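Table S4 entry, Putative TetR family transcriptional regulator.
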Amino acid sequence: MAEPSSTRAGRRSGESTARADILAAAREMFASNGFKSTSLRAVAAEAGVDVALVSYYFGSKHGLFVEALEVPVDPAEQLTRAATGPRSALGTRMITEFTGAWEGETTGTALQGLLRSIVNDPGRSNAFGEFASHRMVPLLSEKAGVDLDTARVLISCVFGMAMVRYLIGVPTFAEMSRDEVIAMYGPRLQLIVDADGTVSP
C-alpha cells in the first residue's frame, strides 16, 4: 500500500525525508505550544505532509512525542506496568520501575541525559511538563485507581528523587544503592497511596 502523498506544494517530503521532517516539526511545535495544544494535523501542515503520514509513522500524538523528544523508555508504559498489580504494593512498584530505567545499562545514560535537557532547555521543559500533566497524571489516576491529586504527588515524588539523585547528585541520595532507594521510597509512596480515598471499581 502506497504512503499518503504530500499536500503542500513546493515542499519535498518523500519517503526519504518525510519522517525526519515530521520529527523536526514536532520538536518545534511541542517546545513552543506544549503537548496538549499540539495536534497531529498542525504538525503535518508544518512538515508539509498529509496528516495520515504522521499516523502511519508514529501511530498517535503520544507516539510522536516520545520519538520527537527521543525518550528511550515510554513513561506512560512505565506507569501502566507500575499500576498493574495489588494496590498495596503500588509505591514499591513505581520506584522500582522508574529507578530500573534510570539506572538501566541500556537506558540509564539516555534517560539521565533527557532529564538534564528538560531542566536546561525551556522548550523541552514545557513539552515534557505538559506531557506529564495531560498524559502521565491522568493515566496513573486511571490505571492505579487513585484521584488526580494523589497521582500528581506520586509522580512529583518520583521525579523529584530523580532530580536530586541523578542530576544534582546530592550525596545523601546519590550515595544510596538502588535497593536502598527502593526500600526507603516504596513504603513512603505507599503511605500516599493508602491515604487516597478513591474506591476502585
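Residues 18-68 form a domain with the Arc Repressor Mutant, subunit A fold (CATH 1.10.10.60).
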